[in-house]
Design a protein that fits this description.
- Helix 1 packs across helix 2 and helix 4 crosses helix 5.
- Helix content is 41%, strand content 19%.
- The chain has an 8-stranded parallel sheet with strand order 7-6-5-4-3-2-1-8.
- The radius of gyration is 17 Å and the shape is globular.
- It has a single domain, classed as Alanine racemase (TIM Barrel), CATH 3.20.20.10.
- The model has no long low-confidence stretch (mean pLDDT 96).
- It has 234 residues and is of the alpha/beta class.
Length: 234
């Protein structure tokens, strides 16, 4: 097998996830791997699927739609991890099993309405902005509980947990405070016991820092570059 093939990279990542889990006393099966396939052509995604990828993560609705049409959604679970514009909600509910990036009531209401229209309950995560970078999406941690309280009564969306994207650091240890903060925020929300809200998932950790995220209880890691190689600039 080609050392640089998508399949080899995929196996290596699975192995690193397993080791990271075991080294902090966790069951590796409690960690889901989202293979992030934005900008990656269908043929290379197929290599990852052949190697065992079952969850694919996309950032752009149009791009995902074309890929889902050609690869299908029977054996693949498609997740949306990018910034979602309200006017794309009607497509998103048809295409994605989990939307990681809900950060406003307005977006949640639109997803609720569109999901209702197709008889679906849309699973979502709440994206939290822990780095206070103006450019990044996500709700301020101080406003997160209020947002969750306002989304919880919507019948056709179901909150499953939290997601965050820390700033990029060369040293993954520097991302640890962000992962820990998301874990602590989850604990606070759990204590609130809000009906219709589950806090099962912590979506955090990417190519450069997923092992650190796993040691802070990530349940979903989102990995692109380490599986598919460097993406073109866009
Ligand atoms: C692109 C992207 C990833 C994957 O990043 P890599 O560093 O390539 O692993 C993960 N999460 C989100 C939200 C992304 O946009």
């Amino acid at each position: 097998m080609n050392e640089d093939s998508v399949a080899t990279r995929f196996y290596l990542i699975k192995e690193r996830i397993r080791k990271a889990a075991l080294s902090c006393g966790r069951d590796p099966s409690g960690i889901k791997l989202v293979a992030v396939s934005k900008t990656v052509p269908v043929e290379r995604i197929q290599e990852a699927i052949a190697a065992g990828a079952t969850i694919l993560g996309e950032n752009y609705v149009q791009e995902a739609r074309a890929k889902i049409e050609s690869l299908g959604a029977d054996s693949i679970s498609w997740h949306f991890i990018g910034h979602l514009q309200t006017n794309k909600a009607k497509y998103a509910v048809r295409l994605f099993d989990l939307i990681h990036s809900v950060d406003s009531l307005k977006l949640a209401q639109e997803l609720d309405k569109r999901a209702k229209g197709i008889g679906k309950v849309q699973d979502i995560l709440i994206q939290v902005n822990l780095s206070r970078e103006m450019t990044k999406s996500g709700i301020d941690p101080k406003e997160t509980i209020d947002l969750i309280r306002s989304i919880a009564p919507l019948e056709n969306v179901s909150i499953r947990g939290l997601m965050t994207i820390p700033p990029y650091f060369n040293d993954p240890e520097r991302a640890r405070p962000f992962f820990r903060a998301l874990k602590e925020l989850r604990a606070l929300i759990v204590e609130e016991n809000i009906p219709n809200v589950q806090m099962t998932e912590l979506s955090m950790g990417m190519t450069g820092d997923f092992e650190t995220a796993i040691s802070e209880e990530a349940t979903i890691v989102r990995i692109g570059t380490a599986i598919f190689g460097k993406r073109p600039e866009r």
